[in-house]
Every structure is written in C-alpha cells, then in structure tokens.
Amino acid sequence: PLGRKVLIIYAHQEPKSLNGSLKDAAVEELGKQGCSVTVSDLYAMQFEPRATRNDIVGCLHNSEEFNYGVEAREAYKRGDLSDDLIEEQKKVQEADLLIFQFPLYWFSMPAIMKGWMDRVLVEGFAHKFPDCYSSGLLKNKLALFSFTTGGSKEMYTKGSISGDIRYLLWPMQHGIMHYCGVKVLAPHICFAPEYVSEEKRKEMLLAWAQRLKALWKEEPINCSPEWYFK
Predict the structure, then answer these.
(1) What is the Cα–Cα distance from 120 to 116, expressed in whole angstroms?
(2) What is the pLDDT of residues 168-189, one digit of tens each?
(3) Between the CA of residue 32 and those of 23, 141, 147, 207, 212, what are the distances in Å?
(4) Most buried among 37, 135, 229, 230, by the most CB within 10 A?
(5) What are the C-alpha distances in Å from 164 to residues 145, 154, 160, 178?
(6) Torsion angles phi and psi, residue 13, rounded to 5
(7) Is this model's pTM higher than 0.90 or not?
(8) DSSP structural state of residue 161
(9) Low-confidence ranges of the chain (pLDDT < 70)
(10) Is-contact 55 119, C-beta < 8 A?
(11) How far, in Å, CA of 125 to CA of 81, rounded?
C-alpha cells in the first residue's frame, strides 16, 4: 500500500465522539502503512449540502429553465463548477480508497454527507449513462462505509424490527458507489456504541485498526441485488 491514497469523508460534529476516534484511528493506521491520507471533515468545513445554482460559476447552459443535473454536467465539462466542488473532485480523483465515516441517521447517512454525494458525484465526473455500475467512471477505486448505529446488532437482522442491515446499505453501496463504478469493501459497523461500556468501545476501535492492517488484501463484496436481499 506504500503510496496509496485514501480520502476519508467524515461527518460528525464532535471530535471526541466514537466516529471521531474511528476517523483518527484510520488516519494513524493507514499513515503508518505509508498511505497518504486526506480527510474531508464536512462539519468543520461547513460543507454546503444543498445542490443549487451557486454550484455553477458564470453563465448557465439554459437560462430559461434550471435543471441542476444538466447544468452541473455542462459546468463540469467547461471547468465552471464552484471551487469547493472542484476541490472535492480532485481529492476523489486522486484517491484509491474512499472511507465514509458517519453515524447512521434515519437508516441513512447524515444530510451533510448525502449533500456531498449529491454535489460532488457530477455526471461526466463520476458516471455517464450508459457508463455506470461496472463501467462507471470511478472504476479502479474502492469504497468502505464505516458507521455507528443507535440500535443493537440484533435489531438489524432479517426477522427483526429494523430488518437486515444490508437493506440500508443497498442505496449507499449499490445505488451510489457501485453506480459510479467504485468497488465496495464490506462495511464496518459499530453497533450501539452509546449503550456499551467504555471497555467495549475501546475494543471497537481496536477491531477497526486491526482490520485496516490487512485492508488492502480484502476482496470487494458482491454488489448484486442477491447479496443485499438474500
């Protein structure tokens, strides 16, 4: 992994949180391996989650009727996206691995991270129909979703109240990452950290650091519907 580049997209308000510690552990462990690690700390950056006219610098492709997808695509081609987007796209472009670190909100990622997906993964940059899924424009990259939950592991099983955790991963892993051609590593899930002992939380951190040691040897998961819904 010497010289491999990792981008951590991190969404938590509190550096002392478990999410903050998981992010720090990844920076430390991957750095030790000789990877170069960049962090996009979305809350600290006050990252704008809304996809608006402000994302396009200068004139519009069609000033009569605003279509965000079309305008972003055309602006990307012209090099007229706003600076914050160009900055994030550059980080993505250079990365071999994207790690998304966040607390699960309402069976999904926090709005600020969803906004990152909405704004950064522009057509022409990340995907371009029919160049999607295995031929998506970001092929040769890996992604990993690392997150914490409120509910226990038992709650996220097939017969249980919240259903199989994989159902929630489907839109994130398949619908976004795999759509853009990115290969997905198995998610890293810390279940209900708020309800366990300090000791257990330390173990969670250790397990993550341990996994990162051998991360580059891992095979991506099968991103087909069968994997998620079987």
Answers:
(1) 6
(2) 999 999 999 999 999 999 999 9
(3) 14, 21, 22, 16, 11
(4) 37
(5) 16, 9, 8, 20
(6) -80, -20
(7) yes
(8) T
(9) 1
(10) yes
(11) 11
